[in-house]
């Protein structure tokens, strides 16, 4: 599958690298590919520069957002939740992303008042639903937003991989395609929560996750639904 | 410990019955004890009437709210979240609940527009914090609000008891007392999330729980934090 990943941060890199490793045709979409590829400094947390990362993942194309939109059968939204709508609009270009699968892994976290972040949308709406309303002819599926990027692409890193990933969406076939991608990554407990409004719950769940990290002293954590 | 449980519904009964079984001195607080004890009809879901339940739990006193407030060293808020503040005020009577431990297991779920419920408070505030602000000289601890009442008092019912209960609160000693109560019930994975504002997360987590129940076809579920 042609997969365009929007977002050059740790989440976008982790997913693009994993899908590439799995044999998909992968592009990372970014506003300015030249500037992205020219960035050679590590970030404040010591993460490799994009150039350094790309040197180890040369199979991943780096495309301007509209080109990424044209390329991808699936478009993975790994941008910051506060700019996701804008990024998707740029990705659509003159089109409407009709028939595309949008895999939304972002969270509408607002850090503008510091820690803990607040949620820019919640309870009666969700980022995923905002994206679906903006692109009614695309199929939005919410998933993977409830854990750190390292766990997203390597569930076996904790608890023998015995923990849960959620999928939410209004389109059964799209959820099935996402479920297959998740299984390829190695996910075993994939819970279909129902329609896209169930993303309200999983986006709000992140408010517990951000407090668990300091409480437990690690971000290598995930929710398991015991039943 | 003298424990007053506010709320005559399934949650209040489950907790009062369990604390009684564990050897605590337990009272259920209700607005009108006579009316509560006179109710002999099963509810719409077929649950026993209060009178029937009380016949099997005669060790549990039934007190008017102010009497329950005077009786309890610990006051367990098992009322509906939308009326919790009002119930606590009635429980305080002419006092301020100073020095009392308030164990808040309620959720601010608003079903007035049907299913799914919305949250009457969220994100930047929580029911637990509202209670703490209303009774600044009491020690509020949020816990047990992320699961069904049957699991609250019998964690071993699923997954061999290997799943998580959270505690949030501003008072270390109060959290320690609650932790001991939870251990008596049989909880093994008790995660101290931090100060009371972390209850925002666990109250919002219930928005996932309410969607998991229809998705999985059971309410015998709980979150486990895998790490």
Secondary-structure blueprint:
The structure is a homodimer of 227-residue chains.
Chain A: E1 2-6, H1 10-21, E2 25-30, H2 33-38, H3 50-55, E3 61-64, H4 65-71, E4 74-77, H5 84-92, E5 101-104, E6 109-110, E7 118-119, H6 127-134, E8 139-143, H7 149-152, E9 164-169, H8 172-185, E10 189-194, H9 199-216, E11 222-226
Parallel strand pairs in A: 1-2, 1-4, 2-3, 4-5, 5-8, 9-10
Antiparallel strand pairs in A: 6-7, 8-9
Q: How would you characterize this protein structure?
A:
The structure is a homodimer of 227-residue chains. By secondary structure, chain A is of the alpha/beta class. In chain A, 37% of the residues lie in helices and 22% in strands. Chain A contains nine helices and eleven strands. Chain A has an eight-stranded mixed sheet with strand order 3-2-1-4-5-8-9-10, sandwiched between helices. A two-stranded antiparallel sheet of chain A has the order 6-7. In chain A, helix 4 (65-71) packs across helix 5 and helix 5 packs parallel to helix 6. The N and C termini of chain A lie far apart (34 Å). Strand 11 (222-226) of chain A pairs antiparallel with strand 11 (222-226) of chain B.
Helix content of chain A: 25-40%
The quaternary state of the protein chains shown equals homodimer
- Helix count, DSSP H or I runs of 4 or more residues of chain A: 9
Low-confidence stretches of chain A: none
Global mean pLDDT of chain A = 97
Series of H and E elements of chain A: EHEHHEHEHEEEHEHEHEHE
Mind describing the biggest β-sheet of chain A?
8 strands, mixed
């Amino acid at each position: 599958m042609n997969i365009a990943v929007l977002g050059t941060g740790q989440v976008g890199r982790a997913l693009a690298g994993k899908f590439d490793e799995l044999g998909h045709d992968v592009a990372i979409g970014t506003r300015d590919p030249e500037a992205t590829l020219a960035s050679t400094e590590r970030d404040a947390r010591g993460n490799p520069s994009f150039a350094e990362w790309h040197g180890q993942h040369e199979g991943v194309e780096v495309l301007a957002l509209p080109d990424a939109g044209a390329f991808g059968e699936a478009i993975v939204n790994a941008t910051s939740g506060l700019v996701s709508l804008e990024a998707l609009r740029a990705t659509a270009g003159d089109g409407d992303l009709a028939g595309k699968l949008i895999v939304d892994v972002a969270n509408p976290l607002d850090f503008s008042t510091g820690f803990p972040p607040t949620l820019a949308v919640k309870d009666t709406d969700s980022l995923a639903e905002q994206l679906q309303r903006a692109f009614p002819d695309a199929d939005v599926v919410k998933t993977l937003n409830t854990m750190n990027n390292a766990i997203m692409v390597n569930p076996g890193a904790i608890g023998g991989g015995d923990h849960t990933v959620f999928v939410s969406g209004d389109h059964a076939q799209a959820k099935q395609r996402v479920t297959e991608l998740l299984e390829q990554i190695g996910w075993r407990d994939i819970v279909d929560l129902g329609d896209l409004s169930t993303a309200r719950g999983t986006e709000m769940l992140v408010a517990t996750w951000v407090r668990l990290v300091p409480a437990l002293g690690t971000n290598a954590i995930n929710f398991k639904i015991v039943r």
